[in-house]
Amino acid sequence: MESEVYTVRIHHYPSGEVGVQVLDKTGKEEIYSENLREGPAQVETYTALPYRHINKRNEETYFYRPSGLY
Questions:
Q1: What is the spatial distance between Cα 4 and Cα 17, in angstroms, rounded to a whole number?
Q2: Is 57 exposed, middle or buried (0-12, 13-18, 19+ CB in 10 A)?
Q3: pLDDT tens column, 18-47
């Protein structure tokens, strides 16, 4: 089974507004967008998976690492 990987771009505009854009795994085709504007914006780019990807066996330490696991 091949899993999709998406590119997510968060656009921060000088006015304080935020826009969201989701692109396909190639980063070329737009799948979803909301509140995108013309003009300058600071853009953050992330990779996203469309499913929960936490290993249940280590879920407790996935976000909180006890002393000694650094």
A1: 29
A2: exposed
A3: 999 999 888 889 999 999 999 999 999 998
Distance, CA of 55 to CA of 52 (rounded, Å):
9
At 44 the pLDDT is 95
Distance CA 51, CA 20 (A): 19
- Mapped onto helix, strand or coil, the DSSP state of residue 31 is strand
For the CA atoms of 54, 58, 63, 69, the dihedral, rounded to the nearest 10 degrees, stands at: -140
- Structure-block tokens of residue 55: 């290993």
56's CB contacts (< 8 A; 6+ apart) are: none
* Domain spans in the chain, listed from the N-terminal domain onward: 6-63
Instruction: State which amino acid sits at residue 70.
Output: Y
The first and second tokens of residue 24, run together, are 């396909």
